Structure formats: structure tokens, C-alpha cells
Fold:
Amino acid sequence: MTNFDKLLENNKRFAATDFREHLPEIPFIPNQQVYVLTCIDPRVDPAATLGLRLGDAIVARTVAGRANQSFLDDLAWISYLHEIARRRLVRIGRHPPHRLRVGPDG
Structure:
């Protein structure tokens, strides 16, 4: 069995777990509202060192943990998504069908 085969087997086991229960309701908005920037050094696992679970944080890795342009672009996009999510409108329909609608366009 190759290293890649082992990774595929691990992925199959993971897919069979209850991981979906821990995912954020809205993509790119983690459960703990955390965006971690860390080094690409594989000896450091941000989830283990910070006690994060799947869905708790977005983790970016760069050389030396530097906030390069790519990271800043991603951070700007994710900040925008957070702002949009906070602006959700709630509107209650008055006539058929009676319903609660949530979303930017109501």
C-alpha cells in the first residue's frame, strides 16, 4: 500500500464519521469565527495546538506565517462574506404562504 492509498483509506474512514455535524452552517464562516495564519511547517498542527475542531476555524499556511498578498486577498474576501452574513434580512410573508424568509434578498 502506497502513502497515497493510505490517505485514500483515511479519507474513506473520515467520510463515514459524523463530521457533518460539526460543519459551520454558512461556508467560510467558521464556528469559532477564527482565521488562523500559521507557518507551513508540518511539525505544527494548529488544530492540536489551539484545541480547534473541524469547522472551528479557517487555517491559512504561508512560508514563515507571513501575511502575503494572497493571504490578504483571502482575508478581504472572507471579511466581506462575514459582513454579508451579518446583514441578513428577516421578513415574514403576510399572505399565502405564511412563512419566514431569511436571506439578503428576503
